[in-house]
Amino acid sequence: MSLYCGIACRRKSFWCYRQLSTYVTKTRYLFELKEDDDACKKAQQTGAFYLFHNLAPLLQKSGHQYLAPQHSLFELERLLGKFGQDSQRIEDSVLIGCSEQQEAWFALDLGLNSSSSINASLQKPEVEKELTGSFTELRKALYQLNVKDASLLSTAQALLRWHDTHQFCSRSGQPTKKNMAGSKRVCSSNQIIYYPQMAPVVITLVSDGTRCLLARQSFFPKGMYSALAGFCDIGESLEETVRREVAEEVGLEVERLHYSASQHWPFPNSSLMIACHATVKPGQTEIRLNLRELEAAAWFRHDEVAIALRRNNPYTQQQNGAFPFWLPPKFAIAHQLIKEWVEKPIRFTLPV
Ligand SMILES: NC(=O)C1=CN([C@@H]2O[C@H](COP(=O)(O)OP(=O)(O)OC[C@H]3O[C@@H](n4cnc5c(N)ncnc54)[C@H](O)[C@@H]3O)[C@@H](O)[C@H]2O)C=CC1
Ligand SMILES: [Mg+2]
């Protein structure tokens, strides 16, 4: 069966469409929208838009939660018209996913200067008033969004940021033009294609068998500790990065490691977080902190970590002025890695 069969058959025959799972159908649909500008433009007519202003998503508060409102193409055109803007601006939007019913989802930033440059930035307070929401810093709102919206808005922010910072070809200096979906940009003079990029980062929870090693950087919120993280250097395998980062940051030698999971992380730029568990050589547990990288690092017992995982209100200062030891919130892969360590023994598979 050719790669295109599902898409072609879906149009021609219900019988063939039924051969594909919902997930495969959805994936093929998104593939088609990325490849075909006309199909993508058509999808905007029935699609839904998430709005941003200078990379901050429009959110509505509902109790302790944030909701991410969607807008139709019609509502968006009306909004742009009201603020004296051309609907051409909608072409700056990027495709970020679709529903199981194939409603395509897009994100559009109304604050960044449009690449077509005929559109000025829309004034934030006026737009917020009109849309009864507020453009909220994603890092602050991330943990009060449901998982689907948090993930969708992270993707959207990363993609909008990438387009904003890649408007010119690094070889010719000429403008680059995005395709309709925003899955690439092409140089107008030499046709070089640029694709959105993510930097690979390893995040490692080091254990000595009974305790785990957690650390904090000086800019972390008070009391928060996390697993060790570091960018992959060019030419390195993941195993080499884990080994180097642990040695660089806490002066320990990793003995074995086990891959756990991965996560896209939009801050400060797009990273692919690759999470691993690692053990150190027996009897070699003395931490030698690299103060250029970390403010503190320590070994924590299983019971201490289990209690910290359950803490709901980490920012509450204690009576003695100290902040309790707490861990990254649920959405962060660091949390999942630590939870995994607390809940079940890890089977180490890879020597380094
Ligand atoms: N989602 C999660 O659970 C967590 C995510 N992180 C993310 O992991 C990332 C890496 O952690 P760090 O300890 O800061 O890394 P790191 O230990 O590699 O130190 C950062 C330094 O690496 C250098 N560097 C090398 N390549 C870089 C690149 N492509 N981009 C930026 N800097 C680069 C810079 O000098 C920078 O100051 C951070 O951006 C942080 O947001 C960190 C912990 C938890
Ligand atoms: Mg680090």
TrEMBL record:
GO molecular-function term, one example from the UniProt record: metal ion binding
Reaction(s) catalysed by this chain's protein: NAD(+) + H2O = beta-nicotinamide D-ribonucleotide + AMP + 2 H(+); NADPH + H2O = reduced beta-nicotinamide D-ribonucleotide + adenosine 2',5'-bisphosphate + 2 H(+); NADH + H2O = reduced beta-nicotinamide D-ribonucleotide + AMP + 2 H(+)
Cross-referenced PROSITE patterns: NUDIX, NUDIX_BOX
Compartments, as annotated in UniProt: Mitochondrion
Key word NADP present: yes
One GO cellular component, as annotated: mitochondrion
InterPro entries in the cross-refs: NADH_PPase-like_N, NudC-like_C, NUDIX_hydrolase-like_dom_sf, NUDIX_hydrolase_CS, NUDIX_hydrolase_dom, Znr_NADH_PPase
Job description of the protein: NAD(P)H pyrophosphatase that hydrolyzes NADH into NMNH and AMP, and NADPH into NMNH and 2',5'-ADP. Has a marked preference for the reduced pyridine nucleotides. Does not show activity toward NAD-capped RNAs; the NAD-cap is an atypical cap present at the 5'-end of some RNAs.
Protein name stated in the entry: NAD(P)H pyrophosphatase NUDT13, mitochondrial
Species the sequence originates in: Camelus dromedarius
Taxon lineage: Eukaryota, Metazoa, Chordata, Craniata, Vertebrata
